[in-house]
Every structure is written in structure tokens, then in C-alpha cells.
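Write out C-alpha cells for NADH dehydrogenase [ubiquinone] iron-sulfur protein 5.
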Amino acid sequence: MASGYGLAGGPSRCFPFWQEVLACYVTNTSADDDSGKAKCAPVLEDYYECLHHKKEAARTLALQAAYRKAQANIKRDDAPSAGDIRRMGIVDGTLEEKNLKATKWLPHKEIN
């Protein structure tokens, strides 16, 4: 999209960044000497970030990880016990009370 126009016909969202890159190159380089293009690295980086959002994505992932870590450290009063988790909410009782027959295909170990 070097032309600067998006699919909708207007300027693309990154066109202002591209103009900054071009202005920097025009100001700091010439046909004979391109040693000044190192000065354009920050504006070029901004342009690439506008295109690809890699820094934004990395920040989002870091924030999500920090949020999950903080949530994991919060003690819940209504947290299920290990037995509740093992039973997956199935009603307590013996196999006979649940009207089930023990077979070799179904697990039938008593759960605490």
C-alpha cells in the first residue's frame, strides 16, 4: 500500500506513518550517501508497528498473563473441593443408589 489508499478508497490508517518515513529518507539520505537512513529507524519502526501491531500484541499478551496470574492468586470462598472436581458434579451415592451396574467398561471406583 505504498500508494497510501486503502480498500475503501481513502487513505490507509498507516499512510501518515509512511509519509513520515519518506520525509525522513528524503531529508537524511541522497543518491550518493545513504548513511543517514539510520536516523529513520524510529519512524520506520512506528510504520511497521502500525502495519503489523506486533508490540501491541505482545503488550496485550503480557497484560492477559498478568491478569490470569493475579486471578489465580485470589482465594475463592466458593471454590469447589477436589472431590467435587473429581465427581464433576455427579450426585453422591453408591452405584446401586444411582441405579448403575459396575462393568469393566465404566469406572466404578469409590470416590471420596
